[in-house]
Design a protein that fits this description.
Blueprint: E1 2-6, H1 11-22, E2 26-31, E3 46-49, H2 55-62, E4 67-70, H3 83-102, E5 107-111, H4 140-158, E6 163-168, E7 170-172, H5 181-190, E8 196-197, E9 201-206, H6 207-220, E10 226-229, E11 232-235, H7 236-247, E12 254-255, H8 258-275, H9 283-288, H10 298-304, H11 312-324
Parallel strand pairs: 1-2, 1-4, 2-3, 4-5, 5-6, 6-10, 7-9, 8-12
Antiparallel strand pairs: 9-11
Length: about 350
């Protein structure tokens, strides 16, 4: 089957493209001019240059395509020009849906985010696909843009476009090259740059499992429905302890109050304005850490057959990938990863 993947040069999108190729599909990928092809350079895919903000390029990419996996997103917790995030995530998604409609695409899997659901509930229960958040509950431009883009997907499905929505939680594994905020936690830990932690939490899943969930959604997902693709709820302390067990490096013992983390983020952004660089501690990230983003992903298991594996091997694969790709200053002296199942 002819399929198109947007965001295939990114972390999750590259794994989606790889699994589609391995499943025997003919894969076309939308790549921006100057994009980094590192994660797909060994894949037999057709590359089509384009941009989510260029609807003509989207139309060209859709020619002859039956299924679309729209994984691309501007995933930044800080931007000098936040409007760029909305242009890609909201307007770009709207344009992609229009191009898909014009080209008679049979199924679209839209990649949203756990952030559109992971909000406090009145009864304290774990949020799930039935949790309906509001725009006011979205912290920062990235979350707001993805919330608005998900509304576009829901509206498109209601208007007859065959859209299924997946909401990945926090992916971990090989190939997080930018890296994402979670990947940055791993890299900073490996480089000894995490002297303290805050009381927060995330739902973690292996990136390979999240990619497999995309393929399941294309086959079994109901149009207009949302499916959380997660695995295990973990506090940040549990994540760091897991990394300590894998690497033999000590986990930080000092818990930082949120008010101190937010103050440090303000100082970091102020410093970035003067230097012209990016803040080491994005304010949006510090504000997000006030809430544990724990969720339940039972629906994907029931309806899609989504069966994520344990997360510890995914952390091991991530550590090994960063070691092998020069992200760790003293990688040569780092403790080897011993567990054979992490290969």
């Amino acid at each position: 089957m002819n399929v198109l993947v947007t965001g295939a040069t990114g972390f999750v999108g590259s794994h989606v493209a790889r699994q589609l190729v391995e499943s025997g599909h003919s894969v076309r990928v939308l790549v921006r001019v100057g994009g980094n092809p590192l994660l797909i350079q060994d894949l037999p895919v057709e590359r089509c240059e384009g941009d989510l903000r260029d609807i003509l390029s989207l139309g060209r990419a859709m020619k002859g395509i039956r299924r679309v996996f729209h994984v691309a997103a501007d995933y930044r917790l800080w931007s000098r020009n936040p409007q760029e995030i909305y242009q890609s995530n909201v307007e770009g998604t709207r344009s992609l849906f229009e191009a898909a409609r014009q080209n008679g695409v049979e199924r679209i899997v839209y990649t949203s985010t756990v952030a559109t659901m992971a909000v406090p509930t009145p009864d304290g229960a774990l949020p799930n696909e039935e949790t309906h958040a509001t725009l006011d509950q979205m912290v920062g431009h990235y979350k707001r843009s993805k919330f608005m883009a998900e509304l576009e997907a829901i509206k498109a499905a209601a208007d007859g476009l065959p859209v299924v929505i997946v909401n990945p939680t926090t992916p971990v594994g090989p190939g997080d090259w930018k890296p994402t905020p979670t990947g940055r936690i791993i890299v900073d830990f490996l480089n000894g740059k995490m002297p303290a932690y805050v009381d927060t939490g995330l739902n973690i899943a292996a990136v390979e499992d999240i990619a497999a969930g995309h393929l399941l959604a294309a086959e079994k997902g109901r149009i207009g429905e949302r499916y959380l693709l997660g695995a295990r709820n973990m506090t940040l302390k549990q994540i760091l302890d897991t990394l300590a067990t894998i690497t033999g490096r000590p986990a930080p013992r000092v818990r930082l109050p949120h008010v101190v983390a937010v103050a440090a983020a303000h100082a970091s952004e102020l410093y970035a304005r003067f230097t012209g660089g990016e803040p080491q501690i994005p304010l949006e990230g510090a504000k997000m850490s006030r809430h544990r983003m724990f969720v339940a992903s039972d629906k994907a298991a029931r309806e899609l057959g989504y069966t994520p594996g344990p997360v510890e091997p995914a952390f091991e694969r991530a550590v090994r990938w960063y070691q092998n790709h020069g992200y760790i200053a003293d990688a040569q002296s780092a403790r080897p990863i011993a567990r054979p199942h992490a290969a």
